[in-house]
Amino acid sequence: MMDELELLKKDWQKKDEYLPKLSYDEIHNMIWEKSSSIVKWILIISILEITLPNLIYLSPSFREDEFFENVSNFSSIFIAVNIFYYSIVALYIYQFYRRYKEISVLASAKNLMHQIIKTRKTVKHYIIFCLSMSLIFFAFFIFGVSISDEFLRDIMAGMGDNSKEIPLDKIRTTAIWVLSIGGILFTAVAGGIYFLLYGLLLRKLKKNYKELKQLEV
Amino acid sequence: MNKKLEHQFVTELESNQNIVHKVCTLYTNDRDSHKDLFQEITIQLWKAYPKFRGESKFSTWMYRVALNTAITLYRKSKRRIKTQNYDSVIFKIKADEYNQEQEQQLTLMYKAVKQLGDIEKALVFLYLEDKDYREISETLGITEVNARVKMNRIKNKLRTIMNP
Lengths: 217, 164
Description:
Chain A is mainly alpha-helical. Chain A has helices spanning 2-12, 24-30, 38-58, 60-63, 66-74, 76-102, 109-147, 149-159, 168-214.
């Protein structure tokens, strides 16, 4: 085998004449092309993930929704939770930015992979946080609905007045079921999409990283 | 200043482009992907160029960026239909320089190398480029001992691929 590899090495170093040759201008044009690297993809996906849920919430049509106005009036907890939520979001954006900046193509192969995995982890934690928050919101509604008639009426008022004739207990049971199933379903679908997306994007990287890590054992 | 930097970079890359082409040859299977990867490596090199302060040779620095791009950063675009019958550079062997047995061996070896994993290819590439184990280990971020161990395993693996 040694001989064969030596032979290969000798031949490899003579390959130059077969290689393509790009001109100065061709190379010059390339430096202004857009990168499509995996890091760029992570950045784009992360920005979408961080902004989209907030955009939906901040959009005027959503805010003017009677439903949310009613609920918002109901409790100051809602405002407190919001403040808490946005400070955590800000913290995540800051941390993501810092880690993203740390990614350097000049690092060793293993370190580069490690930096990317670390950056992705920040987003992963953020997503888990968001999903937990959405579950908490649903739980908060379910709790509100089950203990307070007023809260239930507030929600019903937000949804329109045509349900007044139905007995309150029946509405309550239905609301609890709808909220429970809706909450779990929403979390599962959102989480599923997220993990599938990153799973596909980082499959190759993880395999290679594992291979380098395994050498240390 | 920027124009000067640009000119300096393109000139350096132009004269060292073989390194990048060789990486592309190992990591891609058709002409379009080759070009795609070459472009991505060029972009990454250019982005990192301001940080390159001539502490090492331009070519040494290129190995790292090129391999990092090929192994980790580059994402194959799926929209492309594979170019058929691409006669890869890697399989072009000067017939008059070797006897028939050697020629056959070389073709088999290149085929076997192409079947290796990303990390294994990187090791073989640096080895073929006559880099020592210190440089190989630093480029990949593993210890020198582990680089040797890995290289031995790759030699065994190549043997198995060639003599199934």
